[in-house]
Amino acid sequence: MSSYSNNTNPYRQSIDLDFWRQPEGVAVPEEELNFLLIPDRVEAAACFDLAKQVHEYQLDHVGTDDQISKALMVTMGGLLPGVLLYDHLVEGRDNGIAKIDFGTIGVSLYKGPGERYENPLVQHGISIPITGETVLVIDDLGDGGGTMKFLSGYVRDSGAHGVLNLAVYMKPRAMEVCGADFYFGEVPQDTWIITPRERVETLMKRVPVWKERGAPIQECARRLIDVIGYDENEVSCYLPRAYGD
After folding, report:
1. Before 170, cis peptide (omega within 30)?
2. What pLDDT digit, counting tens, does each position of 171-187 carry?
C-alpha cells in the first residue's frame, strides 16, 4: 500500500473493529470517569457499519409505512454521525428505496463530563415535517437513556408514525432505559467518550479542573497525549489557553 493510501483510507485493515465494538477507556489521575478517545477513522468505520444495518432494515420494509423516510440528527452529538450516515443512506441507497430527508432537533442532558441538567433541555425543535413518517433519530451516545427516551416520546408526540433510534455507542444503563434499534458498540457506564467533534471541548473543560486539583501544565500534557491519546499538535495549540496563566 502506498503512503497516500495508507494515510487516507478510513477503512484500512489496521482498524480493529472487534476492539472498538467493546472498548474500555483509560484512567486519568483524580478523575472518576475513564476516558476513551475515538479516532476519526474509527468514527467513519462505525458509521459505515451502522449504515449497513439501516440498509438491511430498509430492504426488509420496502413498500411499508415502517420504512424510514425522515432522519433527525440530535445536536450536537448526532451531527457528525448524521453527516457520515447521509452519504451512505442517501447516496448509497438501493434501487427502490426512497430518499431519506435529514433534519435536526436540539436537546441536551449534559453541561460537561458527568454534569447533567436536571431535565432535558430542548434547544430547538424539529426542523422538518415528520407527520405520518417513520423517523430515525441519530445521536452519538446512549448514556443513561434519558435523552433517547425523551426524544422518542417527543418525536412520536409530534406526529411521527414510528420512531427508531440510532447511536454509535450505548452504555448499559441506556440499554435498560431505552435500547437503540441500531448501534455500533457498547462501553462501560464509567467511560466518557471523546468523539472527533468534541476533542477540543473536552480538553478545554477538563484541563482547568486538573489545574485546580494541582496538576502542572506538563502533567496535563502527559495525560492528554500519553494517556488519553490526543494529537500533540492539538495539545500544543489548545493547552496553553485551557490552562491559562
Report:
1. no
2. 999 999 999 999 999 99
Residue-wise DSSP of 135-162: EEEEEEEESSSHHHHHHHHHHHHTT-SE
Q: Which CATH class is domain 40-191?
A: alpha beta
**3-state class (DSSP) for residue 41:** helix
Report residue 56 as a C-alpha cell.
438491511
What type of residue sits at position 143?
A: D
Residue 118 has pLDDT above 80, yes or no: no
d(CA 190, CA 243): 25
Q: Read off the pLDDT of each residue in 72-81 and give the average, rounded to a whole number.
A: 95
Compute CA 82 distance to the chain's CA centroid, rounded to the nearest angstrom: 9
Instruction: Indicate the pLDDT class of residue 2, thresholds 50, 70 and 90.
Output: low
pLDDT band at 7 (very low <50, low <70, confident <90, very high): low
- State the pLDDT confidence band at 13, using cuts at 50, 70 and 90: low
Distance CA 232, CA 221 (A): 9
**3-state secondary structure at position 59:** helix
Query: In which element (H, E) is residue 192 found?
Result: strand 191-194
Checking if the pLDDT of 208 tops 80, the result is yes
Q: Using CA atoms, how far apart are residues 227 and 12, in angstroms rounded to an integer?
A: 24
- Report domain extents, the chain: 40-191, 198-245
- Please state, in angstroms and as integers, the Cα–Cα distance from residue 198 to each residue in 77, 90, 129, 164, 231, following that order: 9, 26, 29, 25, 13
Distance from C-alpha of 216 to C-alpha of 243, rounded to nearest angstrom = 9
* Nearest alpha carbon to residue 215 among 243, 173, 183, 192: 243
